[in-house]
Amino acid sequence: MRALLLFTFLIPISFSLKCVKIFLTPEVHFHAENNCRAISGTLVTIKNAIDNRAILNLASSAGISTMSLGLYCFGNNTSGCFWDDGSGSPISYNNFQTSNQFDKTGRGVVMSVSNTFGTNQGKWLSVNCYDGVNTFSSYPYMCETPPTQPMSGCKHNYNGYCYTTSKQIGNQKYDGNFAKTFNWIDGTTWDFHYMNPLNFQKGKCLVMDLENYGLWSQVDCDQKMEFLCKRKILADTAPTKKSYEAPGILLDASNCNSTLYLVPGSISSYGYPDFTTPPTYCSWRLVALGPYRMGIYFDFWATYSALTIYDEYGTDIGQFVGTYNRTPFARYTPFNMATITFRPKSGPNVDRGFHAVVLPL
Prior knowledge:
Blueprint: E1 3-11, E2 16-27, H1 29-38, E3 42-43, H2 49-61, E4 66-73, E5 81-83, E6 108-112, E7 124-127, E8 139-145, E9 156-158, E10 161-165, H3 166-169, E11 205-208, E12 216-219, E13 228-232, E14 258-262, E15 265-268, E16 282-287, E17 294-302, E18 306-311, E19 316-320, E20 329-332, E21 337-343, E22 353-360
Parallel strand pairs: 14-16
Antiparallel strand pairs: 1-2, 2-8, 3-8, 4-5, 4-6, 6-7, 9-10, 10-13, 11-12, 15-22, 16-21, 17-20, 17-22, 18-19, 18-21
């Protein structure tokens, strides 16, 4: 894979410090984002005009004519566009070409670096990522990673923290003194988890399964396992976590008939877990940001109704009907988009519906 040297630049007005790397070999959006993910980064994001100019100048100096951005659109206006790093929509700033903002068949977003599309340099355009016959549009791209500061003796340095493996520091022992509810032992807010929905074992400690998408499971605290230690290096380099909300109005906790539902989250038959509600037709359009597929974990199923999962291009990748009771099971999507339909069917038992947790993988 051809790549240029690592560039760093400081934007003092926007307080934006980025480490970026340019890849000249064209890739489709999904593969480009995967390559960025492999170096602990994401496709480049642009949050203001100064960033836009800096990125344009770097891409131009590398001889790039058109470059992929870390922005993906699920509709034909900016409210349906989301940055791959999970920081939300380009509401406060975007640089789409006014005369032709969106290709209605496209979802990826590129920057015109050398006026390739007959527009001004630095303008953004949505492009068709798929033409229906397995042909994808590919472009050079730029990855960005958060900055950090060198620390003597630190082998794993990322985003202002030094990480040390258990093999580096020898045998350690935990006292098992954990609260009944999970908390980070450094006192930071418990605002994210990645629990395996189909793992039902109990314990006061958590482990990460490195062979199962990094999902977490509960275990007894006296089990000996490999671990990582985390030490802060630079106080102000960690990015502020931002939240985002999917557009549209959700009817209830089932998220039934969602026009666009950003995962992680859960879906269920309408009214679940109120089993007195009769089965109702529901559909969900599920979306994961960035280079993620989705895992759909069905942790409850007691219905004769028909549920079908379609991938981004309408291919049936799973249909479930006819069996009333199913043990917990999972299905995985090949892309970062999927559609699910749930059609009522009657049977001899009381229909209790279904519930599933959906995670980006």
